[in-house]
Queue: 3 jobs
Job 1
Amino acid sequence: MSNLLTINKGIFKISFAPLQMEEVYSLVDASANGAIVIMSGTVRDKTAGKDVTYLEYQAYEPMALEVFSQIANQVRQRWSDINHIVIHHRIGRLAIGEISVLVAVGSPHRAEAFAACSYAIDNLKHNAPIWKKEYWQDGSSDWVSIAQCEHLLP
């Protein structure tokens, strides 16, 4: 299953299928761009010092897609030169090294593209109704909202 929403040069998707960097790049590629910035979130092998076996993501999809659209609108309000923005998130079971989220921004200038991409992923993590369950090597597991993971960063 894959939900896709396209609004005003923004393309948003939640999918069980693996996310493709090349696809996301092609969706923001345009002759007006001087820069394309892509943020790829991947499943890492440790969280808070614990060995991770795999992750499971769930989302309230209609609301998550709406949040993605709202983020894109906020990006365009702050950086009016942004040409395209793509936000794709994966759900289901993901192995170490798999891509869980891709955010791509196309813009005439690199500074705006970097800032807009950073803004988009930060807001997605704090506002989208997406949760992950971490499964650890010791056999334990726990559900956390993506925003709760921010405190684990160094």
Note: Residues 2-147 form a domain with the Aldehyde Oxidoreductase; domain 3 fold (CATH 3.90.1170.40).
Job 2
Amino acid sequence: MTATYPKAQNPLILQFHRLMDAFAKSDDERDFYLDRVEGFIIFADLDKGSEELDILEDEITKAEDRFCLLPKMTFFETKKFMEGFVNEKVYDIDTKEKLIDIIQSKEARENFLEFIYDHLTELEKWQQYYHERSRIRIIEWLRNREIQFVFEEDLELAKKVVEKLKENLFESKVSKELSTARDTLSAKAKTYYSNEALNPRPKRGRPPKQAQKVEIEPQLTADIYTKVPPSARPFLYLPDFTSSSVTFSAKFDTEAQLIASLRGSSRAKIDTKLEALSQRLESLQHLSSKLRDTSDFGIESEDKLIKAVNQGVEPGSGDASKVLGIAKGLLPKKKGQQKKADVQEIMEKKRKAGIKQVTPIKKGKKKE
């Protein structure tokens, strides 16, 4: 580092999610730079004016030791990400074979994401895997450039304390509270240079009880930078963090845009069919519940049940008469009719009991 640059008095406070987003978007058409002095990110946006881009290029060329170009994600690295997930996290044989075929085909990155977002059981595993692998990749890159840093998402300091640390980054004399906070940052920064940072191991012992997962977005502090060159200010990369701001896609910047693109494909046709089927099932359940209620609570007259069954059927149609016939056939007979039928049945049994049925003797033909 050139002596003309001010020296930070504590490790740089970087936002991991912002770095992960920049690493995913960095390609042949988009350049991202990390400042070694204060930790801000510059995005060389080609939509800016050519004059502004030329001034930025001159600034970066003059200060090559200050700005670090973020690496481009090559096709080999992209493929390695996807293959690692399939081999380590996918257990269903059919799903694994399908994903392997997608990785070997054209537009593997986008087709891979489309398949993952259509299979919710694999989506959560993919997001966790992508987060963990990106973290290792970013930490390794920062270590190779010997940058002392901490991720703001990993800190357990109060929001006001972190903002004061950013404001007094280059001040040698600070209050006792900030001095203690700086010691905490220095101790935390050493953990990123340990072997476990690049090779995280699962914790030993009894696994914790499974509890409902609660996703809480980290409360990040405001961006405070005091040493940004005037030519680089229009190119500061300061996106607002949301849980859906980072995506593996090369076409879409956010997860919301990716999901919207998926809805415009064949998924819409599937949704309409499922919706029609669900409506039919709901109507059948509604009808069966009416029949069950009437049989359970004992309706006095058959007219009420016929009304319940016939509800929703157009009068005068053939379906209405069929429904009425089925309902009357299922209904028990009235009490008077039932008693009369029982008496006749008893009389018939008595009559049969009084007369013995004898099998008649059949005479055979005489032999001639």
Note: Residues 269-332 form one domain.
Job 3
Amino acid sequence: MSDLEVKKRAINIKRIRLEREKAVFFKLGAKLRAYLFTGILVTAPVAITFYMAYKFVVWVDRLVGHLIPPQYSPDNYLPFTIPGLGLVILLVALTLIGMFFAGFLGRFFLKLGEWIVFKVPLVSSVYSVLKQIFETFFSSKTQAFSKVVMLEYPRKGIWILGFVSSELKGEIRDQFDREMLNVFIPTTPNPTSGFLIFVPKEDTVELEMGVEEGIKFVISGGLVEPNQMKKKKLK
């Protein structure tokens, strides 16, 4: 074998070795990148959740701390600060207020206060709207967002997710000759904003997912898929 062939063979062996090393390097880099993304997906939701909870607790502690007279502040009697103490105090205070207004004397003062509020033109409108919203979301007697449905909107062939609040009743119901639903159409990523539409019941496709799953689906922009959906054929 000539010296030229030996040199060519050595060059080929070196090239093959470099290509293999490069392939191993890229494979290792791809694995490390996958591990990094997995670590982010695992830790980011937990970290963000705890961070937001911590910020909320600190905000409540600061708010309650301003409401408590300095001479009664726990910080004056304890050698250290207890995180979340303000939140506990707030929950206890709200529970005691609820117990008071659930009684006869509390209901009397509540009705008296509402009577005074309703006599003020602008304040009465704001109070009435806020009261209805809170009663809708916190009262167990209502059918607030009882189910999740799909409907074709804004035109045929395009589907959108909606939350059924109740069946249409009253004066608006009398304008239709069939059963109608009040459907709230949320926006992404903020489901608290949106708009209300009246839809014939037969034009909606009821889903098996719960309201909470539907809200997560809307907030994530479709990235967080619900666990279960009723399998229905869209016609």
Note: Residues 147-219 form one domain.
